Amino acid sequence: MTNVVLTLVVGVLGYKIAKFLKIPAPGILGSMLFVGITNIFFGYAKFIRPIKIFSVALSGAYIGVKIKRKDVINFKYVIKPFFILVFAFTINTFLVGSIIHYFGNIK
Question: What are phi and psi of 49, to 5 degrees?
Answer without folding.
Answer: -55, -45
